[in-house]
Amino acid sequence: MADAAVSRRDVRFQSGDGECGGWLFLPAGAANDSPVPIVLLGHGLAGLKSQRLDSFAQRFAERGYAALAFDYRHFGSSTGEPRQLADVEEQLEDWRSVVAYARTLEGVDPQRVILWGTSFAGGHVITTAAGDPGIAAAIAQCPFSDGLAAARAMPKKTIMRLMREALKDRKAANRNEPPVRVPIVGLPGDLAVMTSPDSVSGLRAIFEASGEPFEIPEIPARFMFQVPVYRPGRGASEVKAPLLVCVCERDKVTPARQTEQLASRAARGEVKRYDASHFDIYVGDWFERVVGDQIEFLERHVPVEATAVR
What we know:
single chain, alpha/beta, Rossmann fold, carboxylic ester hydrolase activity, Alpha/beta hydrolase, Hydrolase_4
């Protein structure tokens, strides 16, 4: 099935103590024909669904898949205070919630739910798929797999400065004061979570391709306490569904060596390699190549017109 006629509508679903906002993309006839698979898409650190997740979702829907791109609580169209708070456990709860919600949607096959996560969400996808044997397939794009390795890869001065800000932010939270925030990207030597040489220019390219004014997001610094202890790659061996791992070989944010190991741990893991850096594959020719590979993976493992098999 390949139909360019795609509709998009706003949706909301309950998660924890709040709501997540999303965009549901449906191929023509999804509610009338046989139920179709659905791809659930979540972004990386501080990313919003409007920042190129919709471009991936649109392509999947054009091939006959339903697709739902969503914002985590505290971000974008979702509820939650303080704004821009990145919290691993809350985001994992949002993933479980969106899976449960997707299984209730009219025209969607509840047995063919597919997870798609990029960067930090690539780790969430692995964790979620490992805990849910009903997931039909998963795609982890330049995924965050090992927080301890990521922290060790940071310049020592940068990590020390970030941890000092995290301590300040924790104290502020305990006093019900406004968060102490840190930028998610910066130039080498800046105080920021990601300071690879391409971080600022790469994020700027995503904003520009999304038609949004460029402004570096800032998150409450307490997030840094969670980084070293979040190691989602360890759960890859528990993922029973087909798992596609997309590796950017020049990635300085989520290094390729740790990323490639994910697929070797998974029972049905596959790797696609790109001579690209972390932010390249959201736009331009790299986007076209990676989304084409992902569609090929989906059509091979979870074809639209196939009968669901448990």
